[in-house]
Specification:
Helix content: 55-70%
Strand order of the largest sheet: 1-3-2
Strand content: 5-15%
Radius of gyration: 19 Å
Distance between the termini: 42 Å
CATH superfamily of one domain: Winged helix-like DNA-binding domain superfamily/Winged helix DNA-binding domain
Order of helices and strands: HHEHHEEHHH
Number of strands: 3
Shape: globular
CATH architecture of one domain: Orthogonal Bundle
CATH topology of one domain: Arc Repressor Mutant, subunit A
Structural class: mainly alpha
């Protein structure tokens, strides 16, 4: 039987399992991040800063696929916790520079086991995790390229 509405069934949508798994994975992070007093979004900001030490706001927005209005309150909270310092670029006052503090650097050691704990929670083989990673980054990278052309 021809069902012209088959494409509208939830089970036939790629968006739904992506959405549901994203929410599930974020929930799995919560108990580990609660011990660090971080939200998931604060955690990903910290991961960028642990790697880069100092970035500007635009870089952070692009790296994390976040809008400025989402990032601004996150940075304020992280600054209140003493993990980051925000300053205006001396050569261009429009440019906000975010710097990892010593306290923020110390938090890195406390977070060291989080990726391993999440990997156990997800119960994927190394091959499955690698294939999923490649597929998701293929989608992200193509979208970023498309946005840069606009």
């Amino acid at each position: 039987m021809n069902d012209k509405y088959a494409a509208l069934r939830l089970k036939n949508q790629l968006c739904f399992p992506l959405y549901a798994v994203s929410n599930m994975v974020t929930r799995k992070y919560k108990p580990f991040l609660d011990k660090l007093d971080l939200t998931y979004t604060q955690y990903i900001v910290m991961m960028v800063l642990w790697e880069e030490k100092q970035v500007n706001e635009k870089f952070l927005c692009e790296a994390l696929c976040l809008k400025t209005n989402t990032l601004t309150p996150l940075l304020k909270k992280l600054e209140e916790k003493g993990y980051v310092k925000k300053d205006r670029d001396k050569s261009d006052e429009r440019n906000l520079v975010i710097t990892l503090t010593e306290e923020g650097e110390r938090l890195r050691d406390k977070a060291l086991n989080v990726p391993e704990c999440i990997a156990r929670e997800l119960n994927l083989t190394q091959e499955e995790a690698s294939a999923l990673y490649k597929t998701l980054y293929k989608i992200l990278d193509e979208e970023r390229e498309r946005e840069q052309k606009l």
